[in-house]
Amino acid sequence: MCKFIFAISTALFLADHAGLLAAEPPIRFQERPGRIEIALSGQPIATYVYQDAETLRPYFSNVHTPDNIRVTREHPVAADSDGGDHGTMHPGIWLAFGDINGADFWRNRAQVVHAGFVEKPHVKNGRGTFTVKNEYRHDGKLICNETCRYTIVPGDGGYLLTSDSTFSNDDAPFAFGDQEELGFGVRVNRKLRVKGGNGRILNADGRVNEKQVWGKATDWCDYSGTIDGRFVGLTVMPHRDNFRRSWFHVRDYGLMLANPFGRNALTGGEKSSVAVKPGETLRLRFGVFVHDDPSAEKYDPAAAYREYVKESQSPS
After folding, report:
1. Is the terminal CB of the chain with fewer CB neighbours within 10 Å at N or C?
2. What is the pLDDT of residue 82?
3. Which residues touch 10 (CB under 8 Å, ≥6 apart)?
4. In the 8-state DSSP scheme, what is residue 80?
5. What angle do CA 149, 151, 154 make, to 5 degrees?
6. CA distance 99 to 93
7. Model-level pTM greater than 0.70?
């Protein structure tokens, strides 16, 4: 009788926990040639592209909320579509620079070469992460190396994507110039645009839309609107330990860029040149929270920023 009861108890326990035991990790990576497809709870949320014949730098394309609402522009974008401008320069979410030693990586006149994975895509402690090594090259010459770690953290009403880059060159100096087009950028779904959509740009100081937000340094900036009855969007958050606060280059047509380099271009101040000597490093960190809520009142970008700060201090 005892053996019978034990067998039944074991069977019931296994049945009750079968779903848990068989469940896949909430974040899943699928490696393809030149790209990584990323899913959250079985739903595709983005593709990290590191080999592209037209966009010569890595980026995240077709970024979706966990409920399958696309918040970045469709990519590739049709050249004749409304909002089809800068199709190869504004692919979704990216880190790019219009001037490093005079080379233009923003406009695809120089190339960021994927040199391999330092850390292959994997899931640990509920976070998905991978680390890449990139080579910034122009006219056959190496300008600098970048090691970048990306991490995806599921959260309430969305997920956090963090970017942590270190730039170096042991053999030669390099310098970041002063333009509007240097930093961490996103291009939103056309439905979220201020001009031609129902969107809104909001920064941490309560300023709204391009006229008030452009050229202002702030802790975070959010570009959001309504799609399919949901309030969705992206909150870009420069790390507070970057070498300088970021000014925001934002446009009502759908662009949002955190830029710590363009002091003259964005404020009219003294022209900036950020030099890195041989053997030295420059670290740049950014976060972007992809959010999906029933209404604007339900989403608090300041809380998302606090979570990013907390996450960036975590040993994980």
Report:
1. N
2. 61
3. none
4. T
5. 175
6. 19
7. yes
Q: How many residues does the chain have?
A: 316
Distance CA 97, CA 107 (A): 9
What six digits make up the tokens of 206? Answer: 């309560």
CA distances from 248 to 39, 184, 215, 216 (A): 30, 10, 5, 6
pLDDT of residue 92: 97
The amino acid at 183: G
Beta bridge partners of 28: 39
Q: What is the pLDDT of residues 182-218, one digit of tens each?
A: 999 999 999 999 999 999 999 999 999 999 999 999 9
Question: Do residues 273 and 175 touch, judged by C-beta distance below 8 A?
Answer: yes
- One-letter amino acid at 177 equals G
Long-range contacts of 294-302 (CB under 8 A, 24+ apart): 294/230, 294/231, 295/231, 296/200, 296/224, 296/231, 298/157, 298/231, 299/157, 299/224, 299/231, 301/202, 301/204, 301/220, 301/222, 301/235, 302/204, 302/220
- Whether the bond into 76 is cis, omega within 30 of 0: yes
Residue numbers in the chain where pLDDT is lower than 70: 1-25, 79-82, 314-316
| Nearest Cα residue to 71 out of 256, 237, 260, 261 | 256
Structure tokens at 62: 């077709």
CA 149 to centroid of chain Cα atoms: 11
pLDDT of 284: 98
| CA angle (223 as vertex; 193, 110 as ends), nearest 5 | 85
Longest dimension (CA), the chain: 86
- In tens, the pLDDT along 219-237 reads 999 999 999 999 999 999 9
